[in-house]
Amino acid sequence: MSLGLELSHWSYVAMLLFVVAGSWWLELAFTLRVLRRPRLLISAIVPVSIFFLIWDAFAINQDHWTFDPKQTLGIVGPFNIPLEEYLFFLVIPIAAVLTLEGVKVVMKRVKR
């Protein structure tokens, strides 16, 4: 591949894309309009993400855990946290909200 990246470097990104593919279709299938309600998403994402990014930064700094450079793109942001980890805290909460909203729609239909 270009830039000297092997396919394994895309492992974390592939996992995030799998989550997107597995949950974001709910937006269209059930007309959830979650992605059109930024306040809902921000209230779900920001508080938790801040807490866990601080936790990540601390754990990385203390060598409690690391990210395998063979499975990431090598783009590192503030506090030595890989880009994929920042994306994780965006993609996963959105997927969770979409899933919960999708379940609500299905449960309403089942109750009818």
Please characterize this protein's 3D structure.
By secondary structure, the protein is an all-alpha fold. The protein has one domain (2-111). It has helices spanning 11-23, 25-29, 38-61, 83-111. Helix 1 packs parallel to helix 4 and helix 3 crosses helix 4 (83-111). The termini are far apart. The model has no long low-confidence stretch (mean pLDDT 92).
Keywords:
elongated; 112 residues; 63% helix; 4 helices; mainly alpha
Beta-strand share of residues: under 5%
Principal-axes shape call: elongated
Q: Total strand count, please?
A: 0
What's the N-to-C terminus distance?
53 Å
What composes the largest sheet?
none
Low-confidence stretches: none
Report mean pLDDT, rounded to a whole number: 92
Oligomeric category: single chain
Order of helices and strands: HHHH
The radius of gyration is 17 Å
What's the tally of helices?
A: 4
Helicity level: 55-70%
Domain count: 1
Structural class: mainly alpha
Short description:
The chain has 112 residues and is mainly alpha-helical.
Write the layout of secondary structure elements.
Elements: H1 11-23, H2 25-29, H3 38-61, H4 83-111
Helix pairs in contact: 1-4, 3-4
